[in-house]
């Protein structure tokens, strides 16, 4: 019998929405290349245009501003590396709490880099940002500013409108990673002082393997992948109509199913339940404006890997702030940028809920967590 899974990792990837799945399957039945001018091609290009309309509607963009990519990672690389080339960027000013895709693309973009930090509460350090920008203004350089709308690890909603006000009267460009905000809050791309914005399908119940870069027309030369002229030369490659159809459907269906208020209440129940289990609970970014679907926490002394293994055995899936790759444990750079100690960062756990989360998920999580804590205490007793 298949194990019952309690999935609490929506910020990593949300389960596919049934409507998105149907749209993908329907489009997969069709044959052809959307760039072909014959009937089959036209049918596929119509599917793509419809999906583009849906994504444009939800992000407040114009249809033509939506450029499809393979992922937000690609969108971010296009925005950063492409802008350096096409917009004569001298310097990148980037938030230390960006996704690794942005941090690495910026490091490898070939221009100088200035990083600003996060405050202890998880919010962008606006003062430090202004100081850096001030220096660049004196040197008359043109900068690309890279920030995120909502943090994927803590759920902090960043004061991007403040940054827009600062940048609007200058010659600088602004790129926003809106992956964790798209379809969860109003983005109003067209009317804001944002030049480019990255979004992804699989964070909102769409398929993995498709994302988009929202681009204002003055950024049309910002490219990464050259090809056969698709998408007005802004991103080469035959478009995956089925994945795009699923993305479009998810953009429309997700906001109907994502209940921020309910998720906030479920997260509050989790926090209350965890406090009953431990007096030492630490909740990160507690004093910032946060998305309602997420809690990032630690219980000092309980290693994240140990907790995750125990929870996994109980069928509960969540994320830890420390990721193990190539045998090395990497601590959350987001928590570190907030001034969290290495020790505590290695104990952080993230629960992120989404469109199909229920009170049963919360109850299962809390009872599994209680078991993990008991087992750990028991293990300690045996050792001593
Ligand atoms: N930016 C943020 C804030 C994310 O949370 C993620 C995914 O974890 C990405 C970018 C990368 O998205 P994708 O998986 O589509 O490459």
Summarize the structure.
With about 375 residues, this protein is of the alpha/beta class. It has helices at about 20-30, 40-60, 70-85, 100-105, 125-140, 160-165, 240-255, 260-275, 305-315, 335, 340-345, 360-384, and strands at about 5, 65-70, 90-95, 110-115, 145-150, 175, 195-200, 210-215, 280-285, 295-300, 315, 320, 325, 330, 350. The chain has 2 domains: about 20-255, Type I PLP-dependent aspartate aminotransferase-like (Major domain) (Aspartate Aminotransferase, domain 2, 3-Layer(aba) Sandwich), CATH 3.40.640; about 260-384, Aspartate Aminotransferase, domain 1, CATH 3.90.1150.
What is the CATH top level name of the largest domain? Alpha Beta
Helix content: 40-55%
Task: Outline the low-pLDDT stretches.
Answer: none
CATH topology of the largest domain: Aspartate Aminotransferase, domain 2
From the 3D coordinates, which CATH architecture of the largest domain would you assign?
A: 3-Layer(aba) Sandwich
Q: What number of structural domains do the residues give?
A: 2
Based on Cα principal axes, name the global outline: globular
Task: List SSEs in N-to-C order.
Answer: EHHEHEHEHEHEEEHHEEHEEEEHHEH
Largest sheet properties:
7 strands, mixed
How many individual β-strands? 15
- Determine the mean pLDDT: 94
CATH superfamily of the largest domain: Type I PLP-dependent aspartate aminotransferase-like (Major domain)
| Count of runs of 4 or more consecutive helical residues | 12
Biggest sheet strand order reads: 2-8-7-6-5-3-4
Which descriptors apply to this entry?
384 residues, 12 helices, Aspartate Aminotransferase, domain 1, 15 strands, seven-stranded mixed β-sheet, alpha/beta, single chain, four-stranded antiparallel β-sheet, Aspartate Aminotransferase, domain 2, binds pyridoxal-5'-phosphate, 2 domains
């Amino acid at each position: 019998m298949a194990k019952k899974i309690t999935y609490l990792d929506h910020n990593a990837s949300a389960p596919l929405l049934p409507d998105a799945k149907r749209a993908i399957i329907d489009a997969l039945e069709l044959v052809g290349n959307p760039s072909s001018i014959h009937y089959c091609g036209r049918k596929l290009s119509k599917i793509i245009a419809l999906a583009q309309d849906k994504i444009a509607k939800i992000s407040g963009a114009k249809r033509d501003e939506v450029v499809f990519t393979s992922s937000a990672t690609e969108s971010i690389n296009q925005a950063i590396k492409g802008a350096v080339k096409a917009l004569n960027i001298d310097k990148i000013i980037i938030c230390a709490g960006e996704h690794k895709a942005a941090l690495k693309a910026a490091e490898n973009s070939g221009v100088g880099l200035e990083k600003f930090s996060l405050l202890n509460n998880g919010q962008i350090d606006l003062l430090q940002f202004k100081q850096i920008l001030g220096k660049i203004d004196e040197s008359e350089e043109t900068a690309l500013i890279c920030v995120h709308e909502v943090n994927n690890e803590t759920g902090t909603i960043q004061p991007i409108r403040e940054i827009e006000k600062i940048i609007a009267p200058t010659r600088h460009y602004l790129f926003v990673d809106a992956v964790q905000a798209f379809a969860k809050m109003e983005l109003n791309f067209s009317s804001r002082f944002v030049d480019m914005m990255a979004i992804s399908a699989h964070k909102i119940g769409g398929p993995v393997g498709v994302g988009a870069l929202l681009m204002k027309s003055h950024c049309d030369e910002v490219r990464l992948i050259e090809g056969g002229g698709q998408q007005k030369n802004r991103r080469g490659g035959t478009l995956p109509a089925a994945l795009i159809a699923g993305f479009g459907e998810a953009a429309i269906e997700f906001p109907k199913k994502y209940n921020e208020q309910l998720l906030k209440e479920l997260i509050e129940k989790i926090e209350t339940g965890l406090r009953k289990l431990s007096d030492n609970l630490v909740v990160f970014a507690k004093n910032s404006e946060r998305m309602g679907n997420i809690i990032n926490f630690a219980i000092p002394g309980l290693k994240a890997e140990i907790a995750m293994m125990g929870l996994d055995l109980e069928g509960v899936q969540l994320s830890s702030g420390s990721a193990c790759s190539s045998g090395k444990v990497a601590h959350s750079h987001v928590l570190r940028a907030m001034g969290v100690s290495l020790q505590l960062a290695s104990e952080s756990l993230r629960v992120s809920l989404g469109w199909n989360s229920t009170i049963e998920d919360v109850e299962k999580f809390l009872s599994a967590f209680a078991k993990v804590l008991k087992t750990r205490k028991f293990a300690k007793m045996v050792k001593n």
